[in-house]
Each structure stands twice: as C-alpha cells, then as structure tokens.
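Tokens as discussed.
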C-alpha cells in the first residue's frame, strides 16, 4: 500500500461500509482500527507505520485462521464462517502475497547467500527469509519452503 497510508485506506473503507450499511465490514474494520491504535499506544506512537500495521494485521489474520480451525474441530460452523469472513476482509490490507515460485526463489537465494546446507541452518535461513518477505507470505508457508529447500540442498 505504498501509494497511500494504510490507516487512511482503512478509514475510507470504514466510511464506505458504514454508508452501505455493511455490518460485517464495519465490525471488522472497527476492530482492526482498535488493534492498530492499541499497538501504536504500546509503542508510544501516534500512529503505526505501514510496515508495523501490516505486522499487526498479519498477526490478527493468523489468530483468526487458528480460531476458525478450533471452531471447526468443535463443530461451530457459524463461528468458523465469522472468522473466515474476517480473514477475507483483512487480507485486502496486506501486500500482494508471493507466489510459491517467487517464495522458493527468495529461499534459494538466502540459502545460497548464507551457505546453509542442512536442517541445522534452518533458523538462520528462516529469519533472513522472514525479514525479506515481511507481510508478503505467512510463516507457515515460509517454513515449508525453507524445509523443502534445505532438504534439496542435502541431496
């Protein structure tokens, strides 16, 4: 969202959803604003940078996905649907997610740069990849790609 401030975009979308009486979007965006404001206060800032806001939103998406899985296990379909709707709305505020090929290329580049050649180098590679792809891929996907590439290096 380099073209405009993420906070501005969320506020504009909230205003639009309010006018359209879209209760779900209004609820999710109000909650999103609340967690962003809370995170800013925790950091003693008037407003989070876009990068910081993306981290907070990514964390909320991860929590919602985990909650949806727990609700599925408990056979609470209406709660699963609510969590999935929340993810759908919030994901629009993250940068475009990397494709599997793009992510693998980055992982391979980091593996080469660091000279990693076994599973014991996992932490070093994972940390470097996560810094490079911040907000563009979730941790679970990155973990799989790193593990896959380190196994290939071993062969």
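Sequence:
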């Amino acid at each position: 969202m380099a073209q405009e401030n993420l906070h501005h975009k969320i506020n504009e979308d909230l205003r639009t959803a309010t006018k359209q009486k879209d209760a779900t979007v209004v609820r999710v965006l109000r909650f999103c604003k609340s967690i962003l404001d809370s995170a800013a206060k925790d950091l003693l800032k008037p407003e989070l940078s876009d990068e910081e806001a993306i981290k907070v939103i990514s964390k909320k998406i991860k929590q919602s996905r985990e909650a949806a899985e727990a609700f599925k296990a408990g056979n609470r379909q209406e709660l699963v649907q609510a969590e999935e709707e929340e993810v759908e709305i919030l994901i629009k505020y993250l940068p475009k997610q990397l494709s599997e090929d793009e992510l693998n290329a980055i992982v391979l580049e980091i593996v080469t740069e660091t000279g990693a050649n076994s599973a014991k180098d996992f932490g070093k590679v994972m940390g470097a990849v996560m810094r490079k792809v911040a907000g563009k891929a979730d941790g679970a996907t990155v973990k799989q790609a790193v593990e896959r590439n380190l196994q290939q290096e071993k062969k």
